[in-house]
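User: For my dataset I need records formatted as: sequence, then structure tokens, nothing else. Please produce one.
Assistant:
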Amino acid sequence: MALPDITVQQLEYLDAVERSPTWAAAAASLGVSPSALSQGLAELERRVGVRLFDRAGRRRVPTAEHAVVLAHARRVLAQTSDLVAWAGEARAGRRGRVRVGMIDAAAVDRFPEELRRFRAERPGLDFHLTVAPSGELLGLLADGRLDLAVCVAPPAPVAGLVTEAVADEPLRLYAPDGARAGDPHRWGPWVTFPAGSHSRAAIAAAVRGAGARFEVVAESHQPEVLREMVRLGMGWTVLPPTQAERPPAPLVPARRAPLLVRRLVVATRRDGLPNPAGEQLIALLRRSG
């Protein structure tokens, strides 16, 4: 059976008449003329197929069917109001879903307060956070499994993605106890990030640019593991100070000046649909960077 083409406006007319002392007052509350109100309710009766009002002299009185249609009208109006409120929240970035990827340095060290504030201000938002290396995050983003990713700037553009710089992060040189950083030819061997890592590629270029060999003897994606390898005397490393110099067992930089500065970017899909919550998070990171 085909459903009748009932409009929300017609249901609003019915509810307004019930709530108002007169039809003229109901029309005024809706901002329409009495004739428009009367015509709208007549059309509602026609489309539903039952009479809603009978004449009693100059007055119109509700029929027995009126109460059933009015109850339905109020349910629809309440649910429509809820939908409108929800849509407004979604447009404002306080509802819906956002899937964010971050490297550990961004999530734990660079932007933890921003993430806490973002989530606290949007308790109704379905927020997902994935912490992984840059290359993995960009792959998840390209596959549509993330809405945005904060990672180390890729060495070359990634097809289908756009990036925007949000922070620059210094990386310092760290050596085992007793080693000296005066002569780059004596640096190494190295404990560093795995092959394919964006940070490793930048570190390797900076080490070689300083005149040192880049002989890798151990690898890990986890800065904490690399820090402990240096403490064990296995080799030298290059890390962000926030990770290498964290208590309770901080490393001491071999040189005061950073060996290089890596750029953190936020990446999104070039053809991705607008995500209000994601756009607001990006704006927050941009201001904080």
